[in-house]
Specification:
The protein is mostly helical. It is built from seven helices and six strands; from the N terminus they run βββαααααβαββα. Helix 1 packs across helix 3.
Length: 232
């Protein structure tokens, strides 16, 4: 579609939500993606980039699992995360630059891919031995909760927030890369005089942060919708 609205068979319209990204890397990332999209060869399509992003995220999960037996697989995880960023971030930009937007298809595929990719990544992390399964599952549940809130807000408020505060998907990938490099030195961290798995500490912080963010954002959006639709 070349417009922001796609017609349903019933004759009604689907309006693409406003995209909001306030993350630390948003400005630089947008310029880089536009530069790449304008120069991408014609054989590269947004669908192929979406497949690349999903395949790379599944690959990252597999490499995490293999890192249980050889830590050098953590370097392969870094490569997979880079490819995941390329596919996941560039597909939509390429479609917009080429005026090939498909609002409903793009929104659905983009986010169902994110869900399957997150399951693969967290499963791989849980199998890696660098953190406990409970921590990996807590992160996955928190991610699903935050994602669900985001999708509901997109539908009801017409605004799709790509980031929460200064953190978005790119910042999370950067933190994972930094964590992988730290794991190559030692999988443990000392906190309050006790030794813990480094990714257990980071994962617990991430899970709590996502849970707290989901609750705060849900309260804010509920209040906003109540103001827009007060009782008579």
């Amino acid at each position: 579609m070349n417009t922001n609205a796609a017609m349903f068979k019933s004759g009604t319209y689907f309006h693409a939500a406003q995209r909001v990204n306030r993350s630390l890397t948003a400005h630089v990332e947008k310029r880089a993606l536009l530069w790449m999209a304008e120069r991408a060869p014609r054989w590269i399509s947004s669908d192929k980039l979406t497949v690349l992003g999903l395949t790379a995220q599944i690959g990252a999960g597999v490499c995490y699992a293999l890192a249980r037996f050889d830590e050098r697989w953590l370097l392969a995880v870094v490569l997979c995360l880079a490819l995941n960023w390329l596919g996941d971030s560039l597909d939509g930009t390429l479609a917009r630059v080429r005026r090939q937007q498909r609002p409903r298809y793009g929104f659905y595929v983009d986010h169902i891919v994110d869900i399957f990719g997150a399951v693969a990544l967290m499963t791989g992390l849980g199998a890696s031995g660098f953190l406990h399964w409970q921590t990996a599952m807590a992160m996955l549940v928190a991610f699903m909760l935050l994602s669900g809130e985001s999708y509901l807000a997109t539908y009801t408020l017409g605004c799709f927030e790509l980031s929460q505060g200064f953190f978005g998907p790119t910042e999370i990938r950067i933190l994972l890369v930094a964590g992988n490099l730290a794991l190559l030195r030692s999988p443990y961290s000392t906190l309050f005089g006790h030794s813990f798995l480094l990714f257990d500490v980071g994962g617990a912080i991430a899970a709590v942060s996502m849970f707290a963010t989901a609750i705060i954002v849900a309260m804010r959006h509920t209040a906003e919708l109540y103001r827009q639709e007060p009782l008579p």
